[in-house]
Structures
1.
Amino acid sequence: LAKTTQPISMDSYEGQEVNITCSHNNIATNDYITWYQQFPSQGPRFIIQGYKTKVTNEVASLFIPADRKSSTLSLPRVSLSDTAVYYCLVGDPMDTGRRALTFGSGTRLQVQP
Amino acid sequence: SAVISQKPSRDICQRGTSLTIQCQVDSQVTMMFWYRQQPGQSLTLIATANQGSEATYESGFVIDKFPISRPNLTFSTLTVSNMSPEDSSIYLCSVAAVRQGIYGYTFGSGTRLTVV
């Protein structure tokens, strides 16, 4: 499984856009990039998944450059409720259910008023 | 996507005792995964539970300490045996989920265990 590297922590203020970048230099051809969000005292929650270019949903956008060696999770106009730990994971979706997720250290986002 | 009910949500236990954590899924799944998350840390995989066979444990985790049952395709239990304060953690179960064609994982809400 491709190893990922993310910043340990980030700080932001309400209303700002937050971009969290993840490095995955050894990503394989069949690997997708998936981001999870974890609030205190809860299990991780799926946010977004992508393979290349840009993916957007109601929560976030995911930007993936052509070489796919990194990806950026973009949270538009964050609020206090976006304070959480964000995990970037890389893997083959066809392994889903056959192989457990391997979590890196994640990025602890603190949003200030 | 799958919905997981995990119980208990929290417990405070005496050292030397055991606690069994239950994980119920609203759909049939082949594999269930058990994780441990120590305070301020990331998630660490304990074992993979496949229905009808012995669980597969990760390095550093053994069946005598963390016995797992998987009696059917919707249920699993993890027991933390002979507990010590070092076992104080959040324990989570997880299953694969597909929603709108996207393959991902769903997690239970976790069991916060404190050993005193």
2.
Amino acid sequence: DVQVVESGGGLVQPGGSLRLSCEASGFTFATHWMNWVRQAPGKGLEWVATIKQDASEEYYVDSVKGRFTISRDNAKNTLDLQMNSLRPEDTAVYYCARGPGGYSYEGYYDPWGQGTLVTVSS
Amino acid sequence: DIQMTQSPSSLSASVGDRVTITCRASPSPKNFVNWYQQKPGEAPKLLVYGASSLQRGVPSRFSGSGSGTDFTLTISGLQPGDFATYYCQQTYTFPQTFGQGTKVGVK
């Protein structure tokens, strides 16, 4: 089965750091764009970051630029999100989602993982 | 940035009803518009991609249409498992924005 599974969420104090991971299986990880999307409690979906197959391109939503870093290890089939200087407004379920294969990022997200909850609170 | 404005934000419907959800984009994302279904406590599920292509395994009662700036998701004959929240998304350019969601509830 094609799947992605997130891990690493938890409770962290404001200003702290957390690293999320996503393990992919059932497809050729190195050939797909990969994404992080978050959902604050009771709210809608918000795109967070995207990385190209060879990690040569990264994109971020403005609210996390300079604080979050997306990375990938194609040998281990893993996607990471390093989150620094965390704020209460970063509290959300974070989803990993597979993007399109091929040169262009224009496409769809499928599948999505089950999500991992990050809570930023003192 | 491309803004995706979904309407309505919520609706009430009965089993068997035809349901239409609209997403208006500004500016145009060409046809790079996707639709997802999300049930409480679950991850989003892809329904329609490229504005009108049905994802494999998705029932044919779901359909997508539209072009330019106006896009529609239609459920023809609502089923009990279709009560959920639906999101549109554009992937034409970054930031890859979502609509605010439409919650389909029981009338």
